[in-house]
Amino acid sequence: MEGKGRKGKEEHVSVSFARSGGPGGQNVNKVNTKVDMRFNVKNATWLSERIRDKIMLMEKNRINKDGELVISSTKTRTQQGNIEDALAKLQAIIDAAAYVPPPPTEEQKKKIEKLAAKSEQKRLQSKKALSQKKAFRRSKDGGMQMTGLDSTNL
């Protein structure tokens, strides 16, 4: 049921059409409006290596064994509308992969350090409490209460 393939604006994007489900009445049974867009991530040399690797990682379930990212669109009732929608999805994926969070400000760094110090202090306090509890158990009767024997019965 796949329609004819055509190359998109970019050399690494190929588009094919198929019959789409959803709204459209009888038109749905006659016109190939579903768009399957394939973007070859491995051959997209115009993207940096970091961005390509991130796309491969983020979209690993949508990438086939040939290294092609498969994007489908059935949003509109026209081929052109679905092509635009698929291109927008591809652009969103590339933008998400290219995003680099800004470095933390001095205020954020101080807050992170403060939280780390607080959690370390809490961890040490709980270790100390557990140690004291065990020391108290050891000092009491030398473990005689466990066997049911009393030092007076010996």
TrEMBL record:
Listed NCBIfam families: PRK09256.1 (NF006718)
Lineage of source species: Eukaryota, Viridiplantae, Streptophyta, Embryophyta, Tracheophyta
Pfam families cross-referenced by the UniProt entry: RF-1
InterPro entries: Pep_chain_release_fac_I
GO molecular function (one): translation release factor activity
Alphabetized PROSITE patterns for the sequence: RF_PROK_I (PS00745)
Domain of life per record: Eukaryota
Region of interest called Disordered, as start-end residue ranges on this chain: 1-30, 101-154
Gene3D superfamilies: 3.30.160.20
Domain Prokaryotic-type class I peptide chain release factors: 19-35
Comp. bias intervals (Basic and acidic residues): 1-13, 106-123
Protein name stated in the entry: Prokaryotic-type class I peptide chain release factors domain-containing protein
Ranges annotated as biased composition (Basic residues): 124-137
